[in-house]
Design goal:
- The strands form 3 sheets. The chain has a 6-stranded antiparallel β-sheet with strand order 2-3-1-9-8-10.
- Among the domains are: 218 residues, Glutamine Phosphoribosylpyrophosphate, subunit 1, domain 1, CATH 3.60.20; 208 residues, HUPs (Rossmann fold), CATH 3.40.50.
- By secondary structure, the protein is α+β, with helices and mostly antiparallel strands.
- The protein is built from 25 helices and 17 strands.
């Protein structure tokens, strides 16, 4: 796990070192630089040593020095690939470096090698014979990769703030991306906060020609829902066994490490299942687990994590989260935060990663299960929402929204009042944007007020609409699954976890996103993921033999923080000017005042606004 950076074209070693310095937190164990001034090629690497500590230094080159690589990630099936390459005549210089396996896989299969990988990655391969740079990002986008072509320079990096340290890459705010940020709560790929700077989406490759600086981007993989045509006689038993087997293999692959590792254990289904298999594979006395507790009862899950830790016999560690601790860590988090992130759970995730890093260098988590198995609350609302939109006339709908707005504000985690208002808000718009409007800080009409200009919601939500329209299945559950798996997972959940982990030099692995497991789950029909009001139906059935029912069937909390209360009672917003470029000051001020007075709950907008201002000033 590392940070990578580089460029082709105009620039100097000073630019490269400046870029590398901004990703130092991603690789505290070592660094490497390489340059070819004649061709104008510069590569940098910051290393977090996980696999083959002695033999994994980068940039790494083939013996003939014709092909080199800088790589961020882990390839979990590299032992199998190494064996196959050895049978084909390749000789390895390292003991067990997955980076060298990547390099020789490229020599054998060229760009098609990415289809053979099981892991997470962002890498750049310099092919001197073809005179090109080959970039790739893993299927789900677990590892970040930004790029830009400006002013005679093609540059790339693991993080945005590193990229703009190059003297030829300006950092000009993109207003269109800012609108998407306030619509989604994150900035979806390939957009970034800055003009002419892009994220390479998950499942994409890029090749840049060194001589001309031209580049080509293409998709090599896509998550597609293709349900099995034949249903077994007892799908709960048959599919459940396959899920357990695939998840166990996924966990075993991710226990591969030359350094200590642990598990994030919230006490929910996903983290408990990872803990269960890790304890079985590694032995109970060898597993360390970590969690965050809250003083506010509606946000706290620590009793469940303690119960799960006791049940599986792990060495458990807990950190208490509070507003005082948040104030302490926020300055450091904001300084390192690569782009504005509307998911406030990045704060406790940052604390969790920091606490975990004191004991281990690698952690396993449950990310991806909610997206693959329909685990989010909006799945429960879909059918009722369809009936509501058909039966309720628009004038009455407006009246119901106005009535709901008068309900007393609750600052509890996912309170009924909060969910009701959110649901009614989304139902004011077409189905294809229900999900982003439910989740986002502002709805289209509010975006128009904030930016003081008309907003085309089809442009703002173009990514969500494309995933909705392109879904091969026509039912609303599959279309929602596609939104969460292809958009929300990559640009919110995985971005949050990568940044929070790497700020502390902690690698976080996601067994549920193992390609073998994901490829099987995508073929399970939606009726076995969401069934009779039960989210994650087939996963819960699969895990019944290994996880207590008190954990399997308890209500879902989510990893939130009490920002609504903090903004009102603890004045988290103090010292914020609310005078930001492109944004209507009076709109922002009105929402701050309504929230402080307790007449409205604007927690999502306030957090996104506050974070954007602080990020902009860092």
């Amino acid at each position: 796990m590392c940070g990578i950076a580089g460029f082709v074209g105009i620039g100097t070693r000073k630019d490269l070192e400046a870029m590398s310095e901004k990703i130092a937190h991603r690789g505290p164990d070592g660094e490497g630089f390489w340059q070819d001034k004649n061709r104008g090629v510069y590569l940098a690497h910051k290393r977090l040593s996980i696999i083959d500590i002695e033999g994994g230094a980068q940039p790494l080159w083939t013996p003939d020095h014709e092909t080199g690589i800088v790589f961020n990630g882990e390839i979990y099936n590299h032992p199998e690939l190494r064996e196959l390459l050895e049978k084909r005549g390749y000789r390895f210089q390292s003991d067990h470096s997955d980076t060298e396996t990547l390099l020789l896989a490229y020599k054998e299969w060229g760009r098609n090698m990415v289809g053979k990988l099981n892991g997470m990655w962002a890498f750049a391969i310099y092919d001197r014979e073809k005179n090109e740079i080959f970039l790739s990002r893993d299927r789900f986008g677990k590892k970040p990769l930004y790029y830009s072509l400006q002013n005679g320079t093609f540059a790339f990096s693991s993080e945005l703030k590193s990229l703009v340290r190059h003297s030829n890459i300006p950092a000009n705010i993109s207003v269109s991306s800012l609108k998407k940020y306030f619509a989604y709560g994150f900035i979806p790929a390939p957009n970034s906060p800055f003009e002419n700077i892009y994220k390479l989406p998950g499942g994409y490759n890029l090749v840049s020609d060194i001589a001309s600086l031209s580049f080509h981007v293409w998709k090599y993989w896509e998550f597609v829902l293709e349900p099995f045509e034949t249903i077994p006689k007892n799908p709960e038993a048959e599919w459940g066994e396959q899920i357990r087997e695939l998840l166990s293999k996924a966990v075993k692959r991710r226990l591969m490490s030359d350094v200590p590792l642990g598990i994030f254990l919230s006490g929910g289904i996903d983290s408990s299942s990872v803990t269960a298999f890790a304890s079985e594979i590694a032995g109970k006395d060898r597993v360390k687990t970590f969690c965050i507790g809250f003083r506010e009862a509606s946000f706290d899950e620590s009793k469940y994590s303690q119960y799960a830790a006791s049940y599986f016999g792990t060495d458990h560690h807990e950190e208490l989260f509070s507003i005082e601790k948040a104030r302490t860590i926020l300055p450091e988090l904001l300084e390192k935060l690569d782009e504005p992130m509307g998911d406030s759970s990045i704060v406790p995730t940052y604390l969790l990663c920091g606490s975990t890093r004191k004991h281990v260098t690698v952690a396993l988590g449950g990310d991806g299960a909610d997206e693959l198995f329909a685990g989010y609350d909006p799945f429960r609302a879909l059918r009722l929402a369809e009936f509501y939109q058909i039966l309720i006339p628009k004038p009455l709908h407006i009246a119901l929204r106005m009535a709901a707005a008068k309900l007393p504000v609750s600052y509890r985690n996912m309170s009924l009042e909060f969910k009701l208002k959110r649901t009614l808000r989304g139902l004011s718009y077409p189905k294809k944007i229900w999900n982003p409007v439910w989740l986002g800080p502002l709805e289209p009409s509010e975006l128009e007020d904030l930016f003081e200009e008309p907003v085309n919601w089809e442009d703002i939500y173009s990514e969500a609409i494309a995933y909705w329209d392109d879904c091969p299945q026509k039912n609303i559950v599959d279309k929602t699954l596609q939104f969460y798996t292809k958009l929300y997972l990559q640009d919110d959940i995985l971005t949050k976890v990568d940044r929070a982990g790497m700020m502390h030099g902690l690698e976080v692995r996601a067994p549920y996103l193992d390609i073998d497991l994901a490829d099987f789950v995508r073929r399970i029909p939606w009726q076995y993921k969401y069934r009779n009001g039960q989210t994650k139906y087939i996963l819960k059935k699969a895990l019944e033999p290994i996880i207590p029912k008190d954990i399997l069937y308890r209500p879902k909390k989510g990893f939130g923080i009490p920002i609504a209360k903090w903004f009102r009672e603890d004045k988290l917003h103090r010292n914020v000017s609310r005078r930001l470029p492109f944004l209507n000051v009076s709109f922002s001020e009105k929402r701050y005042q309504e929230h402080i007075q307790g007449t409205q709950d604007h927690r999502l907008f306030l957090w996104n606004h506050w974070l954007f201002e602080n990020w902009l000033n860092c």
